[in-house]
């Protein structure tokens, strides 16, 4: 894509988010567990009419084949509304699942699962996390308790999953299950016998349709043709999905943080206190100045990591660094915006309060800050020990 065509795509995206998507932010079809499927269909029909359904995907899937650097600019624009990524079919978990399927799925699996997902006519889920009170897998995937065993030309899956984003109403899910000493991914229709959505969790965020579910898999029978990739390679494929997914989270929520900053900035200019606008009080002005600094530093980190991925490198360490730096910076921005706006900031009168909640959850999603720092520290240790060994 040329620079001019990318600029034109971004201009159309900005206009679509501003003129079409933002008015839906107060739609009554948004409930405690996210937008209804009817609202999703409504938004995506409008995005489809505007030619803005998943433009980052390769042309064979209906997109324009954006690289990671161009995708970063697009996703930041779409994220200006919490509903933007959903409307344009750029939202998690579907976006990450599309990336993985495009890399690993067979031609038959692409036709059966990826094409409808890319077109925005179905939704998906990614079932890896398990209930903490059962000592299931979370940030440590080696704790995986869900098991799959072969049975002729099928596999039988048993286990419970938690925080399965979008599971309610999803057409299919990618299920991670232990197979011996390793793990395997399976493509599972969500209406398969033995799958039960036990309940939807009440969480602080609310922009993902289908919410976050606890799902039971009780003797779920899956054909061997539904294995995603190869048997026992699930942990490796999780890394294929994880690094880009970490980065796209950063992109989308950067747009939301920018929106919160713009609203807080406008409030500070108009709101009078102690004889002058809030912006003229140093305490407020400095917070908004810090927001600009955090926004720019986050943007540069995102673009740097996108460049690493575009080089063909896996970007595992770089995406961990970026996820930590950006999630913490965006959280500071959202917190300052609430503080600048006072009582208005903690009310539902603007979207700032929602963005604050969504970004707080982002500090947990795709690995909390502490886990990423621990992984980075281990990488530092390995590098230093390797260097010391070379000099012996």
Structure overview:
This protein has 392 residues and is an alpha+beta fold. It has helices at 3-21, 37-49, 68-78, 84-87, 94-104, 107-119, 234-270, 282-310, 316-345, 352-362, 369-390; strands at 30-31, 34-35, 124-127, 147-151, 154-165, 172-179, 182-189, 195-200, 212-223, 227-228, 272-273, 276-277. Helix 1 packs parallel to helix 3 and helix 8 (282-310) runs antiparallel to helix 9 (316-345).
List keywords for this structure.
single chain; 392 residues; alpha+beta; 4-stranded mixed sheet; 4-stranded antiparallel sheet; 51% helix; 17% strand
Compact description:
51% of the residues lie in helices and 17% in strands. The protein is of the alpha+beta class and 392 residues long.
In terms of per-residue confidence, which ranges show pLDDT below 50 for 5 or more consecutive residues?
none
The average pLDDT value, as a whole number, equals 95
Give the beta-strand count: 12
Shape category? globular
Proportion of beta-strand residues: 15-25%
Alpha carbon gyration radius: 22 Å
For the largest beta-sheet, the strand count, sense and barrel status come to: 4 strands, mixed
- Helical stretch count? 11
* Structural class by SSE content: alpha+beta
Give a topology summary.
Blueprint (H helix, E strand, L loop, with lengths): L2 H19 L8 E2 L2 E2 L1 H13 L18 H11 L5 H4 L6 H11 L2 H13 L4 E4 L19 E5 L2 E12 L6 E8 L2 E8 L5 E6 L11 E12 L3 E2 L5 H37 L1 E2 L2 E2 L4 H29 L5 H30 L6 H11 L6 H22 L2
Parallel strand pairs: 3-6
Antiparallel strand pairs: 1-2, 4-5, 5-9, 6-7, 7-10, 8-9, 11-12
């Amino acid at each position: 894509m040329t620079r001019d065509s990318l600029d034109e795509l971004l201009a159309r995206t900005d206009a679509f988010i501003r003129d079409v998507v933002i008015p839906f932010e107060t739609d009554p079809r948004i409930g405690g567990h996210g937008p209804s499927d009817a609202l999703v269909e409504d938004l995506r029909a409008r995005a489809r009419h505007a030619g803005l359904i998943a433009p980052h995907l390769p042309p064979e899937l209906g997109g324009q084949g954006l690289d990671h650097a161009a995708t970063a600019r697009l996703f930041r624009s779409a994220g200006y509304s919490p509903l933007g990524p959903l409307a344009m079919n750029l939202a998690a978990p579907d976006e990450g699942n599309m990336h993985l399927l495009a890399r690993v799925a067979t031609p038959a699996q692409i036709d059966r699962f990826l094409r409808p997902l890319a077109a925005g006519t179905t939704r998906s889920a990614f079932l890896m996390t398990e209930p903490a009170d059962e000592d299931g897998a979370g940030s440590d995937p080696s704790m995986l308790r869900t098991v799959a065993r072969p049975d002729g030309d099928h596999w039988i899956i048993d286990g419970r999953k938690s925080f399965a984003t979008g599971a309610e109403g999803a057409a299919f899910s990618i299920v991670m299950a232990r197979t011996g000493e390793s793990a395997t991914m399976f493509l599972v229709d969500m209406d398969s016998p033995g799958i039960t959505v036990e309940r939807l969790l009440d969480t602080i965020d609310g922009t993902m349709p289908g919410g976050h579910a606890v799902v039971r898999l009780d003797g779920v029978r899956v054909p061997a043709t539904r294995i995603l990739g190869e048997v026992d390679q699930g942990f490796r494929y999780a890394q294929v999905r994880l690094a880009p997914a970490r980065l796209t989270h950063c992109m989308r929520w950067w747009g939301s943080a920018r929106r919160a900053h713009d609203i807080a900035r406008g409030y500070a200019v108009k709101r009078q206190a102690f004889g002058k606008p809030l912006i003229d009080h140093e305490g407020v002005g400095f917070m908004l100045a810090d927001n600009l600094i955090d926004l720019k530093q986050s943007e540069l980190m995102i673009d740097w990591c996108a460049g690493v991925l575009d080089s063909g490198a896996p970007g595992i360490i770089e995406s961990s660094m970026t996820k930590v730096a950006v999630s913490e910076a965006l959280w500071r921005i959202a917190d300052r915006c609430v503080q600048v706006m006072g009582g208005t900031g903690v009310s539902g009168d603007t979207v700032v309060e929602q963005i604050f909640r969504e970004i707080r959850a982002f500090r947990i999603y795709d690995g909390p800050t502490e886990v990423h720092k621990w992984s980075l520290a281990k990488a530092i240790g390995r590098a230093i020990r390797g260097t010391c060994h070379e000099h012996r």
